[in-house]
Amino acid sequence: MLKQINEINETIQSLLLIADPSVEMINQYIKTGLVYKLEIENKTIGVVVLKEVCESTREIMNTAVSEAYQGKGYGKMMRKEAEKIAKHSGYNNLIIATANSSLNQLALYQKCGFRIIEIKKDFFINEYKEVIMENGIRAMDKVILSKNI
């Protein structure tokens, strides 16, 4: 079960950095987003940030699981919980975005019912100071996916 938090400690910050290497970008969206953590045996192992896009839509800005707990279904569970939170808060659409180079995430999100609705060309080139490489591919374009909930 996800628990909303108001303060970002070192553990939460390090989890957020797993999914987004830019401290500047993280600091922007946590100011306006809602941050939730996942605890297992009183240890924070995951984090999700939800942000309102408009009156009908929320966006999952960041979702990350501690490396020791990855591959055990916690990320999927947190995404499902985020969907429930958004739906119970009166939203009927959820969006999530990732880089063109995030092949595993693109496959996962589509398996979970998300559909590609937009591509923002050169987003990661223009908005991030650091070069991001995944799967031998440079992250350049932001791929936005949407799901009715």
Write a concise synopsis of the structure shown:
The chain is α+β, with helices and mostly antiparallel strands and 149 residues long.
Explain how this protein is built.
The protein is of the alpha+beta class and 149 residues long. It has one domain: Gcn5-related N-acetyltransferase (GNAT) (Aminopeptidase). Strands 1-2-3-4-5-9-6 form a seven-stranded mixed sheet, with helices on both faces. α3 links the parallel β4 and β5. The mean pLDDT is 95.
Features:
Aminopeptidase, seven-stranded mixed β-sheet, 33% helix, two-stranded antiparallel sheet, 5 helices, alpha+beta
Q: Look at the structure and give the CATH class.
A: Alpha Beta
In the CATH hierarchy, the architecture is 3-Layer(aba) Sandwich
What is the H/E string? Answer: EHHEEEHEHEHEEE
- Helical fraction: 25-40%
CATH superfamily: Gcn5-related N-acetyltransferase (GNAT)
- Unreliable spans: none
Instruction: State the domain count.
Output: 1
Characterize the overall form. Answer: globular
CATH topology: Aminopeptidase
Cα(first) to Cα(last) distance is: 19 Å
Structural class of the secondary structure composition?
alpha+beta
Largest sheet geometry: 7 strands, mixed
Q: How large is the share of residues in beta strands?
A: 35-45%
Number of extended strands? 9
Mean pLDDT: 95
State Rg: 15 Å
Number of helices, counting only DSSP H or I runs of 4 residues or more: 5
Strand order of the largest sheet: 1-2-3-4-5-9-6
